[in-house]
Amino acid sequence: MIYEILGWAGTILVVMAYFLVSNDVISSQSLIYQIMNASGAVFLGISVFKKKAWASFGLQVIWFIIGIIAIANIVF
User: What percent of the chain is predicted at pLDDT more than 90?
Assistant: First the structure.
């Protein structure tokens, strides 16, 4: 049950981030956008890891790395 909740939380974060950027509410260069994406990737990654969905897990790892690099570029 907890893995399903994490998966849905991750989905909501990633979709909301995309929605907000697509509607010019936030910038793709904003810290909140990158945090939403990276957090969503972590939550989804935990969920798909538990389900042994390896391709999806690999995507979430890559998505998380991209988010962390973007966060580092914004902060530093």
Answer: 99
Residue with tokens 């969905």: 53
Domain ranges of the chain: 2-75
**Burial letters 21-35, b for 16+ CB under 10 A, else e:** beeeebeeebeebbb
Q: At residue 20, what is the residue type?
A: L
Phi-psi region of 35 (alpha: psi -120 to 50; beta: other; left: phi over 0): alpha
Global pTM?
A: 0.89
Length of the chain as a residue count = 76
**What does each C-alpha distance from 67 to 4, 52, 58, 59 come to in angstroms?**
23, 23, 14, 12
Token digits of residue 39: 């957090």
